[in-house]
Amino acid sequence: MNTTTKATMEEKRGILILPEEAGLYWADLIARSGLNLVGIHPGWGAGALEELEKMLDFVKTPQFAEFAQRMKELNVAIEFEAHAMSWLVPRALFSEHPDWFRMDESGNRNADFNLCASSPEALLFLETRSEELARALPSPTGRYYFWIDDVTGSACHCGNCRVLSASDQAMIFYNHILRGIRRFDLEAEHCYLAYQDTIQAPDKVKPDPGIFLEYAPIYRDSARPINDPDCPENYKELEHLPGLLRLFGQEGAQILEYWMDNSRFLKWQKPLSPLPFYEEVIRRDAEYYRSLGFNRQTSFGVWLGEDYGQAFGEPPIIAYARAIEG
Questions:
Q1: What is the mean pLDDT of residues 272-285?
Q2: What is the CATH number of domain 4-324?
Q3: Name one Pfam family in it (predicted).
Q4: Other beta carbons within 10 Å of 251
Q5: pTM score of the predicted model
Q6: Residues near 314 by Cβ (< 8 Å), separated by ≥ 6?
């Protein structure tokens, strides 16, 4: 039995970290910060499939078991958030089922990203694999985040799909993912990730009951408040939020921010450098998001692990937790 209702209602303040960083170093930071949610987020982009498979192995290790036990003692919820589409519907199936995959703008079926949102067989397979992934990564909170591919311009353009926006196609995928998960976890909930091409609310496809909003404004300027009227980057991200909230509502809605994402500040290229920490911006953002009804606020915290601490000192996790506290 999951704790979905309790998890939905309770105010959450969280951080997303890499699987390999889920150990004693981060456990200590989280304990001292007062954060009450940690998301485990494997790698992204072209390496998403390999990194997800590594995470599936990692959650079976003593290191993760020790970390999970420590989080339980601290009453810190653990959730898993991953770009999972290439695992859910493996690209190797293209040779046998090309119609499962998206048609590009040139009229060719392509196994590069995502699926054909109008293929009944592909969507049924997506449900089956979503159940399998949920069984491998059961969520103690009953909330799941099996995201579509981490790319832009990857919608299907076949005759049936071309009338659907990228957001509508994503909504179809997330509805079917949730249906599959609920074969295993009857009360499960799943996110609609508003991000990149799907930052706009779906228009033609409605969310199934149990779909909640996760808003991730990746193209924002993190040095300026999200509601700064003089910041065009932030205005462009924020202009879609009212429509998203009208469709999905406030219940269970979650902010996934980039306040603490050192990988983004470094444009996803190492070597590491100190995290730009805009504490007052974070405080103002968090207050604004709360005014809209978001009682769950998280941020990526990638590349702030033990190697960062050795090079630059402890990352400002405690100050971050204070900044987003209501």
A1: 99
A2: 3.20.20.80
A3: DUF4838
A4: 12
A5: 0.96
A6: 29
Total length of the chain: 326
> How do beta strands 211-215 and 254-257 pair?
parallel
Residue type, 92: A
- Evaluate if residue 1 carries a pLDDT over 70: no
Provide mean pLDDT across the span 313-321: 99
Q: What is the pLDDT of residues 133-188, one digit of tens each?
A: 999 999 999 999 999 999 999 999 999 999 999 999 999 999 999 999 999 999 99
Widest pairwise Cα distance in the chain: 55
- Selection from 282, 285, 200 nearest residue 243 by Cα: 200
- Find where tokens 């100190």 sit: 274
* The three-state (H, E, C) secondary structure of 60-104, written as one string: CCHHHHHHHHHHHHCCCEEEEEEECHHHHCCHHHHHCCHHHCCEC
**pLDDT value of residue 3:** 46
The pLDDT tens digits for 295-310 are 999 999 999 999 999 9
> In angstroms, rounded to a whole number, what is the distance separating the alpha carbons of residues 53 and 311?
29
Place of tokens 């039995």: 1
What are the backbone angles phi and psi of residue 300, rounded to the nearest 5°? Answer: -60, 140
Alpha helix (H) residue ranges in 182-316: 232-238, 241-248, 262-265, 279-291, 306-312
